[in-house]
């Protein structure tokens, strides 16, 4: 019943999220032949002094079109679309998980229900987790037939691995937002707190010296490109001692935030 109520509250955002991802993905794939031709003639990326932009430009303008296309998908499907839109959706959905209940004066009633706090938290969380992660796999799967129309191929297993990492990142942001939502009474304040944190992380990412310490360093082009090209096996994604074992860190962070949310909720009295 709690899960059904949660779904009814977020289904509008879920539909909009799916549509926006599709609208961002399809045009950039269909325009690839013209973009690739322009990239072959352009020297813009080679003239820029920022290392990571040079690497990105070199990847998407590779003389081998199949390699260039994989790098283009790493940029447009993941580094841009699922990272940014997925993060926004996670914040928007997670903001109201408990703050909405406080605003509508139903939080005390929710806590007084004859269900355990662990069950309450899970029934609030899993519909949101499904809504945040499932569209990532759906949209990236639709990129496969679109690529066939361009006479190019996307490796299905590598696409699934990259989608999995993007979904784990979105899940981590959702867990963070849910944790803040338990403490803060107003949805707008939850969004402001999490939004300020994410803006700080983006600022750190854009600053060369402190870029390695940014959360977005875990989901940038330098991570997705090796996955899409098949250079990062699945086991390395979850090996914390490997340079690409970032999925493990994100899963641990999401698990810790979920656990802390449960601890706080358990001690909250109606």
Give me the count of strands. 0
Cα shape: elongated
Q: Give the C-alpha Rg.
A: 20 Å
Q: Supply the number of helical segments.
A: 12
Helix content: over 70%
Description:
The chain is mostly helical and 270 residues long. The chain has one domain (2-267). Helix content is 79%, strand content 0%. The chain has helices spanning 2-30, 32-41, 44-47, 51-60, 65-103, 107-111, 117-149, 156-183, 187-206, 221-228, 234-237, 246-267. It is elongated and about 65 Å long.
Secondary structure: elements and pairs:
Layout: H1 2-30, H2 32-41, H3 44-47, H4 51-60, H5 65-103, H6 107-111, H7 117-149, H8 156-183, H9 187-206, H10 221-228, H11 234-237, H12 246-267
Helix pairs in contact: 1-5, 1-7, 5-7, 5-8, 5-9, 5-10, 7-8, 8-9, 8-12
Could you provide a short overview of the structure?
The protein is built from twelve helices and no strands.
Entry keywords:
single chain, 270 residues, mainly alpha, 12 helices, 79% helix, 0% strand, elongated
């Amino acid at each position: 019943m709690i899960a059904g109520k949660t779904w009814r509250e977020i289904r509008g955002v879920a539909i909009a999220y799916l549509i926006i991802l599709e609208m961002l993905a399809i045009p950039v794939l269909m325009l690839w032949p013209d973009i690739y031709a322009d990239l072959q003639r352009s020297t813009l990326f080679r003239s820029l002094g920022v290392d990571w932009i040079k690497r990105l430009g070199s990847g998407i303008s590779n003389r081998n079109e199949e390699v260039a296309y994989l790098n283009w998908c790493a940029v447009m499907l993941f580094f841009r679309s699922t990272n940014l839109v997925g993060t926004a959706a996670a914040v928007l959905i997670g903001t109201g998980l408990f703050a909405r209940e406080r605003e509508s004066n139903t939080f005390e009633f929710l806590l007084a229900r004859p269900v355990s706090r662990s069950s309450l938290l899970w029934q609030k969380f899993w519909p949101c987790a499904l809504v945040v992660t499932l569209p990532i796999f759906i949209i990236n799967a639709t990129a496969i037939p679109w690529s066939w129309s361009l006479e190019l191929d996307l490796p299905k297993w590598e696409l699934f691995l990259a989608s999995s990492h993007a979904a784990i990142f979105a899940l981590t942001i959702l867990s963070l937002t849910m944790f803040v939502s338990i403490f803060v009474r107003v949805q707008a304040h939850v969004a402001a707190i999490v939004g300020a944190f994410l803006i700080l992380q983006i600022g750190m990412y854009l600053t060369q010296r402190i870029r390695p310490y940014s959360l977005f360093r875990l989901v940038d082009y330098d991570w997705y490109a090796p996955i899409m090209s098949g250079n990062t096996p699945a086991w390395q994604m979850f090996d914390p001692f490997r340079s690409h074992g970032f999925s493990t860190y994100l899963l641990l962070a999401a698990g810790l935030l979920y656990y802390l949310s449960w601890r706080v909720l358990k001690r909250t009295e109606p």
